[in-house]
Amino acid sequence: MRIPLFFALAALLTASCQTQKSPHQTAGLAPTPVAVTGAARFPEPVEFSPVGHPAGSCLSEEEIAAEQAMRLHTALMVTGLTCHGFYREPTLFGQYQTFTTDHDDRLGGAKRTMGAFLFRYEGGSRDRLLDTYQTRLANAESRLLADASAPTYCRLRRDQFTAAMDFTADDFESYVTLMVERHRARYRVCR
Known about the structure:
Layout: H1 5-16, H2 23-26, H3 38-41, H4 61-82, H5 84-87, H6 92-102, H7 104-122, H8 126-148, H9 150-164, H10 169-183
Helix pairs in contact: 1-9, 4-6, 4-7, 4-8, 4-9, 4-10, 7-8, 8-9
């Protein structure tokens, strides 16, 4: 069931003023065994959809996790570039850069995994394939920003950005694991 963007945004704004619950609590499901950090509780601003996969492709669990790590990194980048004025935080992009440095091993592994995935289906230069894919992720996040407006986007991404800046390596893995669980049904998983 697809929820109109207006209602999704209204629900997110209302939820941001209240104590947040995990997605499992909200849906009335049993708690997940994965540690739920602040950013993992952050709801999606719009209905999730995988971006830019080759036709007929399927993804392994590792590839889905790699994409989720890259999606978070992309959202943090767009937030860091866009929201410093709204957050009254001139060092916002610097915080994103620190996150990137702190999690370089995990992000580098995610890029290698997605590069190999794209190469498996499309061939050619892995670097070019990965650059094109990262551009698609950034364009999708930028479209979200444009569709929602900068003030709304920044309000929706604030909790996620703030929580992610404090991620340990384990927190990052827990976030990615939860996002894989949350969105697995949207992917064509290799069997």
